[in-house]
């Protein structure tokens, strides 16, 4: 069991206060598929976007476990799941690779503004034809003097419509080789980059995403994140952070959903007694509790092992798989427990269910995670 310090608990409290304020009006924003610009202004004022970044770039200098603990608090208190997802994307998609792999020049130029939220970040990995098959990437980057020229397209880019800077992964070597990808930091107004319109989607509607198109888009070679052909290493680091940080937010959301369901079961009367007294209901709540706790344990245990330098390939895949599928199960159980009320938009639980499905797809589908685990078992 992790013993959190007073400073960590204070940051968690700050995140919960922010989440409660940022979630106001979430149903209206979800219906209108609107990003919470006012909520973004609030989180900028707290400094929480700089959680894992060094103080020299305006960050709070916190480690991975603390960052997760605070983000779990955001998920617990904020009912706008799309906003929380955009916050996580901001931290892990651009800031994390910059701090770990960026040159001093790139860090000095961009990281303070990523840390304070004055620049919104995104990353572009997935392509229309490739899906989860990163090795099938077709977007190319060809060296031309002091620049690279990018051509191709990306799909499902979270924060794409609102992003100021985007970490783009492109092919710079032989397709199919892990040593064939390079990461580039691309500014939104770079000639040759076209940001598509927001794409309507099932859930996380307040976290906009879009396609990106590159047509002879010239990016300075100085904007390579890491080194040429090391993009897979950058991506691997980012995806670990993405899974741990994004899905710990889901744990917070599940915890809130569980508590809300328990309270409803204690107060809702049917057939002359509280519905919590019915074994079918109490069993469902017990399963929800186990789902929340098992997800939390997998994520924090994996983060601890990762921080210790251990190989967590299976652990990351299992954590993602378990948490994403538990999140769907807990959301569906809550809808069923609330009955007709759970099915209405007013209670927000149907929105939770729609939001939860995304977790089984992004960062590698559930099937991909099972295949990864199987490979590591020697199958």
Automatic annotation (TrEMBL):
It comes from Micromonospora eburnea. Residues 122-217 form the Acyl-CoA oxidase/dehydrogenase middle domain. This is L-prolyl-[peptidyl carrier protein] dehydrogenase. Keywords: FAD, Flavoprotein, Oxidoreductase. GO terms for molecular function: acyl-CoA dehydrogenase activity; flavin adenine dinucleotide binding. Its cofactor is FAD. Belongs to the acyl-CoA dehydrogenase family. Pfam families: Acyl-CoA_dh_1 (PF00441), Acyl-CoA_dh_M (PF02770), Acyl-CoA_dh_N (PF02771). Transmembrane segments: none annotated. Residues 229-377 form the Acyl-CoA dehydrogenase/oxidase C-terminal domain. Residues 5-117 form the Acyl-CoA dehydrogenase/oxidase N-terminal domain.
């Amino acid at each position: 069991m992790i013993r959190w310090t007073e400073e960590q608990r204070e940051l968690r409290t700050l995140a919960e206060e922010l989440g409660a304020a940022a979630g106001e009006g979430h149903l209206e924003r979800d219906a209108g598929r609107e990003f919470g610009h006012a909520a973004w202004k609030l989180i900028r004022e707290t400094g929480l976007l700089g959680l894992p970044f060094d103080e020299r770039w305006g960050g709070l200098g916190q480690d991975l476990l603390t960052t997760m603990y605070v983000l779990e608090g955001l998920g617990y208190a904020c009912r706008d799941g799309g906003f929380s997802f955009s916050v996580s994307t901001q931290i892990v998609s651009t800031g994390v690779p910059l701090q770990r792999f960026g040159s001093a020049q790139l860090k000095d130029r961009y990281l303070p503004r990523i840390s304070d939220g004055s620049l919104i970040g995104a990353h572009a990995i997935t392509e229309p034809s490739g899906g989860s098959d990163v090795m099938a990437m077709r977007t190319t980057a060809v060296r031309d003097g002091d620049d690279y020229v990018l051509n191709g397209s990306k799909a499902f880019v979270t924060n794409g419509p609102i992003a100021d800077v985007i970490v783009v992964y492109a092919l710079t070597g032989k397709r199919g080789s892990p040593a064939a990808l390079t990461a580039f930091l691309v500014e939104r107004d770079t000639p040759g980059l076209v940001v598509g319109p927001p794409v309507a989607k099932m859930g996380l509607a307040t976290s906009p995403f879009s396609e990106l198109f590159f047509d002879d888009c010239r990016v300075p070679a100085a904007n390579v994140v890491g080194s040429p052909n090391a993009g897979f290493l950058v991506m691997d680091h980012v995806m670990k952070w993405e899974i741990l940080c994004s899905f710990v937010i889901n744990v917070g959301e599940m915890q809130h959903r569980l508590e809300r369901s328990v309270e409803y079961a204690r107060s809702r009367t049917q057939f002359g007694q509280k519905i919590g007294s019915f074994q079918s209901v109490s069993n469902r709540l017990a399963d929800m509790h186990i789902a929340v706790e098992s997800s939390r344990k997998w994520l924090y245990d994996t983060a601890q092992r990762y921080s210790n330098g251990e190989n967590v390939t299976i652990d990351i895949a299992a954590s993602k798989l378990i948490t994403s599928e538990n999140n769907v199960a807990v959301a569906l159980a809550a809808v069923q427990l609330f009955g007709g009320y759970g099915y209405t938009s007013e209670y927000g639980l149907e929105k939770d269910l729609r939001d939860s499905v995304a977790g089984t797809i992004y960062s590698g589908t559930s099937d991909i995670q099972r295949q990864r685990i199987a490979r590591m078992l020697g199958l």
